[in-house]
Design a protein that fits this description.
Rossmann fold; 6-stranded mixed beta sheet; 4-stranded antiparallel beta sheet
Length: 223
């Protein structure tokens, strides 16, 4: 079976020789359908840089990235934007919710960008938020939500367009241990049920047991 994500000899350098800095060096990995993979490592190890490349937000200096068997390394910015909207879902440690929009509208907006009508997007967003236990918080602005509730809104937003791969960058960093673990359990369960692959980068060892596989990144290399 073709892996959802395949990475071959991926590297990212900043600057020019002899003063260049290597953030990620010759990383190769595969992620299967419905697999939850956790990449751990200390601060400064290259986790966010790696995730940014895998999420088509940052172009690699070397190597190739294949999503569902398709090379995305040389795609144009327009093609990458379409790819991010339809095939990738993002979850960030700071949630990145739009403060002027309700929880419902934060999620529905992404569905509308993908082509759904206003009513279709809101119906789908309401269903997903309700599945995440937020039926009573649909019309709350982010400032009125707890950290765990904000992260569940972010999960709904990441999954609303049925992406093949969900990428989470330190998703528990701004949550207490109990809330963070619970939210990650919820993400893992939903991903399995809907056969979405998930890649989490974190230094939070508390979420190891919600993952199918744990990798270690240090000094830009997987070890």
């Amino acid at each position: 079976m073709t892996p959802i994500l395949r990475v071959k000899n991926l590297s990212k350098y900043y600057g020019t020789e002899p003063n260049s800095v290597t953030a990620v060096q010759k990383v190769s990995l595969e992620i299967a359908k419905a697999e939850v993979v956790l990449i751990m490592g200390p601060s400064g190890s290259g986790k966010t840089t790696l995730l940014s490349m895998l999420g088509a937000l940052l172009r690699p200096s070397e190597g190739e990235i294949f999503l569902k068997g398709r090379s995305i390394t040389e795609l144009s910015e327009t093609e990458l934007s379409t790819l991010r909207l339809h095939e990738l879902g993002f979850i960030f440690q700071n949630f990145h919710l739009l403060s002027a929009l309700t929880a419902l509208d934060n999620v529905a907006l992404v569905a509308k960008m993908a082509g759904l009508s206003h009513s279709e997007a809101r119906t789908k967003a309401e269903f997903m938020l309700s599945e995440l236990g937020l039926a009573g918080r649909l019309r709350f602005l982010p400032e009125k939500l707890s950290g765990g509730e904000k992260q569940r809104v972010a999960i709904a937003r990441a999954m609303i367009n049925n992406p093949s791969l969900i990428l989470a960058d330190e998703p528990t960093a701004n949550l207490d241990s109990k809330t963070g673990y619970g939210v990650m359990q919820l993400l893992s369960r939903m991903a399995k049920e809907e056969e979405r692959s998930v890649l989490i980068v974190s230094h939070d060892s508390r979420i190891r047991d919600i993952s199918d596989r744990v990798l270690w990144l240090e000094d830009g290399r997987l070890k």
